[in-house]
Specification:
single chain; alpha/beta; 6-stranded mixed β-sheet; 4-stranded mixed β-sheet; about 500 residues
Length: about 500
């Protein structure tokens, strides 16, 4: 379907091509005489011409970026990054090689339709007459390949056609084809001493506006394996953005955006409880009183702690902490303090996703996001051989909790593991629930009695784990066996406690 065509004199050509391209929604704009034809995310710009064949060929080629090789800006960045990484080239060279690969993939598809191929042959012949005499070895080779593919009627030789045809005709996925074609032309560039440069024949296939670029940047960051990949992809995206300055804020705060994107992935994997949650958390024991009722006697805990059951003297009952602060007007979860061991063994949150610190930051971002949804106040403590940073006695509600995402990155530091400081802080704040994270390698003499703490042990030694369980009970000690499970297990535990 032709939505818009500025070349009214070639309407019949546009309609014929549209029919053979399965009625793609074509928006065709007339550019300046010397403007490079391109496909701007579905909007096709063709430089001003009175040549019907040239118009048709360029329309076939640019529409091919939508139909035959539907490269979105996001995929384009991914392909360029794949070339950059595989061939160890700079972004400019990778983009140049990706353009060649994309154009050849489209040409290989066009050749199967006689009418489309004929239009493309005519436009390539126009370009040949204008560019071949001044063409470098790369463009000369491309003219030779196009002559073979489209049956062009000019003199040009190709030494790479057989190799390229084999790649294009293979069953490799598209990203692999991009890299293989790029490798072939990279070798030619090195032999001939050619530097990458764009022109009407080889140029970035599209431009994206600021709003779209920001959305794509978030998607690319979310899919990146580590901060280096995210950073490189954002830089590539800036090359095809109409206003690259709009992405500078994302680039400047790439760490925070990266951890935020990973946190969103964790939240998407949440399995919500199918049963109604209990209002209280069993966080310890206390001396039994008759007003509690006989059903609240915990004989096992009493015997383990004192060896004998003497009512009103040694008899123990569970201590239940109310998870929800209620009133007629409002109901919200109790205050939550995330208390994290930042000793040297945890590493630094640098986004490379190879240390405890990286995954704990992702976990914390996810908890902040969930707390905001529940109108829960949240606090943060970073501890090592002392309290390195804490928000206490202040707690942050949904209006201010985003600030903590920056604080955790700026204040992460530490050496030794002195859990006593974290537990004393919990002891001084009995009205708050503490999530305490550590690798479990602590001095057991520092494990004081606290009832308002849940412990998350990261890849602990079995001996350390058993000591925590002996001291605090199995229900309050969560064992996390791998780094990538830190966010997932913690968030699932949070959901189990607070999501109703």
């Amino acid at each position: 379907m032709i939505i818009r065509n500025d070349f009214e004199e070639f309407q019949h050509v546009a309609e014929e091509i549209d029919q053979r391209l399965y009625y793609t929604n074509l928006i065709i704009k007339r550019g300046n005489k010397n403007e490079t034809p391109r496909n701007e995310h579905g909007k096709i710009i063709i430089n001003d011409t009175d040549d019907e064949g040239y118009f048709g060929g360029e329309l076939v080629h640019e529409a091919g970026h939508t139909v035959f090789d539907p490269v979105t800006p996001k995929n384009w960045v991914t392909y360029v990054y794949g070339i950059e990484k595989a061939l160890n080239v700079d972004k400019r060279t990778a983009s140049f090689l990706a353009n060649i690969a994309s154009d050849l993939i489209i040409a290989w598809k066009i050749k199967d339709d006689k009418v489309l191929n004929d239009y493309r042959r005519r436009s390539v012949e126009v370009m040949y007459s204008q560019l071949y005499k001044v063409a470098d070895p790369i463009r000369g080779e491309l003219f030779g390949i196009y002559k073979k593919i489209h049956g062009c009627r000019f003199k040009a030789k190709s030494v790479l056609y057989e190799t390229i045809a084999e790649i294009l005709d293979s069953s490799d996925d598209k990203e692999r084809k991009y890299v293989k074609i790029a490798q072939v032309f990279r070798n030619l560039m090195q032999r001939k001493g050619v530097e990458p440069k764009g022109d009407q024949m080889i140029d970035d296939p599209f431009r994206v506006d600021e709003e779209e670029a920001q959305k794509i940047a978030q998607q690319l960051i979310q899919e990146s394996e580590d901060i280096r990949e995210a950073d490189e992809k954002v830089k590539i995206l800036m090359r095809i953005c109409e206003n690259p300055a709009e992405l500078k804020e994302i680039k400047h705060m790439i760490h925070q955006h990266f951890f935020e994107a990973k946190a969103r992935l964790v939240q998407m994997s949440i399995v919500f409880p199918s049963e109604r949650t209990q209002r209280g958390i069993r966080i310890g024991s206390r001396r039994w009183r008759p007003e509690y009722g006989w059903k609240m006697i915990d004989v096992k805990r009493t015997v383990m702690k004192y060896g004998t059951n003497i009512p009103l003297v040694t008899t123990q009952s569970p201590r239940i902490m109310n998870k929800f602060i209620s009133s007629m007007e409002n109901q919200r979860p109790c205050d939550l303090v995330v208390s994290i061991d930042t000793s040297g063994s945890t590493g630094n949150p640098n986004g490379l996703m190879n240390s405890v610190a990286d995954y704990e930051v992702v976990m914390f971002y996810a908890l902040v996001n969930l707390a905001k949804r529940l109108n829960q106040r949240i606090g943060l403590t970073l501890w090592s051989d002392n309290i390195m940073y804490t928000t206490l006695p202040e707690m942050y509600d949904w209006r201010r909790s985003e600030k903590l995402k920056k604080e955790i990155l700026q204040n992460w530091s530490g050496w030794n593991t002195r859990i006593l400081y974290a537990l004393r802080q919990a002891e001084r704040n009995p009205d708050k629930l503490f999530f305490v994270f550590t690798d479990g390698a602590v001095n057991f003499m520092e494990l004081i009695d606290v009832d308002n703490v849940m412990f998350f042990l990261i890849k602990p030694n079995q001996f350390y784990y058993q000591e925590f369980v002996k001291k605090y009970g199995e229900g309050r000690v969560i064992k996390i066996d791998s780094l990538d499970n830190i966010p997932k297990v913690t968030v699932q535990q949070y959901v189990k406690l607070f999501m109703r």
